[in-house]
Amino acid sequence: MTEDPRNASTDGVSQVPPAPDVIDITSDALAAAPAQPSVSPREPSDGSAEPPARTPERPLGTPEPLGGTAEPHPASAADPDEPAPPLRKIIEAILLVVDQPVPDVDLAQVVEAPRATVLETLEALAAAYEQDDRGFELRQVAGGWRLYTAPDCAPYIERFVLEGQQARLTQAALETLAVIAYRQPVGRQSVAAIRGVNVDGVVRTLLTRGLIAEAGEEGPSGAHLYVTTPYFLERLGLRSLDELPNLAPLLPVNLDDLADHA
Length: 262
Known about the structure:
By secondary structure, this protein is of the alpha+beta class. It is built from 10 helices and 5 strands; from the N terminus they run ααααββααβααββαα.
């Protein structure tokens, strides 16, 4: 048999070839191994292009803006999570409930918008109402803004108030009329002090319906005094004020003190 020359030694004794190096994979060896340098995602080691920046996460429940660049709508004053109505709509709603001209600076504070923007919106509303020939118009009077009925509709409004409207008086109107009937002649401020609320609108209604009338002025203040009319007696079926029920003792005696604290 021929001897493998790879196993032959110089002295003729066969030798086993040396085993390859054994790799130590124990935990101690891993712990002792030098740490590999970390590569930043913005500075790749292979020279490739920088990856795009990560988009910030949006809170759950927040709708994605259309177009991706739209400015967020201002939050509602009542509910911060709800968008506020348009400025034009808010101003119109306020003008419907005011009982006297409201300055544009007050509107700007309420809607939290620049005064110039509010003034521009008011002027645009006034122009739009005039152009559309509406039954009301927006006027700037006495340093403020207020809605008024159109002048050419006055005859029809008067007919509706005096003839076409057969509704009964409201509780506020009845209370105001009772105070005037028992305390006449009496000023508007004294009536307001007794009722504890503003009575300007109610007094105008009673004047329009002919139930009360002006009767001179009150002392140095120059405030108008009011009395009931013959039409008032006619509507109640009375011949004179002496037939009114005896309710005067239930009303305050010193109205001047009440008026001072109103």
